[in-house]
Write a structure and sequence with these properties.
The chain has 236 residues and is of the alpha/beta class. Helices cover 31% and strands 21% of the residues. The strands form four sheets. It has a five-stranded mixed β-sheet, with no helix packed on it. A five-stranded mixed β-sheet has the order 10-11-12-13-14. The longest helix is centred in the C-terminal third of the chain and has 15 residues, at 221-235. The radius of gyration is 17 Å and the shape is globular.
Length: 236
């Protein structure tokens, strides 16, 4: 759903951290099953930011610690936004009938850290906090995989989706790209496909600079509409 990418960071002892698990109840069940088949043991779930499709519960993730950058969450608003999502409603109806929709969990807690690194027994994970897409967003650098688990930035299929409530949405997004550039060779976006990091940074910088010509992401009608809406807000 939404070409969502869930990430599992696995330790040598098979314990693991699950990042942004699924969008539908069916996806949560499939991810849970896959983790069981591999013999991995989730110790926590990470939400890269506070939008409803990154705050889902169910399967073997129920009751696990939920870590994040510690952003404020209005759960009632999140549930309303989820329930008003026509595409999600259509997919749930077509795929699951009367099965329950995914459940939005209570706000996660701020992650345990040591000098900006995740304090856990798994592989080294550096937490990069920024506010490009939403207040309190985080991306995770996993040096052993030479990968950046980005959340909803640096996508090959989505233009930069700005936080238009920020005083300087474009400047805030540029600052995040500066923080994330060069942190790894590969990027794993929250929506889209794994790929090299540097071209994604360049593409998003070009978009923010107003270089829209040839950006294939704008061929998607939904993103074209978002693009026009963002330009209208920024124009005042």
């Amino acid at each position: 759903m939404y070409i969502t990418t869930s990430t599992v960071v696995v330790a040598p002892d098979r314990s693991c951290l699950v990042v942004d698990p699924g969008v539908t109840a069916h996806e949560i069940d499939l991810l849970s099953s896959s983790i069981r088949v591999h013999g991995w043991r989730p110790v926590a779930v990470w939400s890269t930011h506070g939008h409803w499709d990154h705050l889902l519960d169910g399967g073997m993730f129920t009751g696990l610690p939920r870590w994040s950058g510690g952003w404020p969450v209005d759960v009632e608003t999140l549930m309303t936004e989820r329930d008003e999502d026509d595409e999600l409603a259509r997919v749930l109806l077509a795929s699951h009938g009367d099965s329950p929709a995914p459940v939005v969990v209570p706000p996660p807690v701020r992650y345990p850290s040591k000098d900006g690194w995740l304090d856990w027994d798994g592989p080294l994970v550096r937490v990069v906090e920024h506010a490009a897409h939403a207040p309190g967003s985080t991306s995770l650098v996993v040096p052993s995989a030479d990968a950046l688990v980005a959340g909803d930035v640096l996508s090959d299929i989505e233009i930069p989706l700005l936080d238009l409530s920020a005083p300087d949405p474009v400047g805030t997004y540029r600052a995040a790209l500066d923080l994330l550039a060069g942190t790894a060779s590969l990027v794993v976006p929250g929506h889209g496909h794994v790929g090299p990091l540097s071209p994604r940074v360049a593409a998003d910088r070009a978009y923010l600079d107003g270089s829209f010509a040839g950006d294939a992401r704008l061929l998607d009608p939904w993103l074209a509409a978002v693009h026009e809406a963002q330009r209208a807000v920024l124009a005042g």
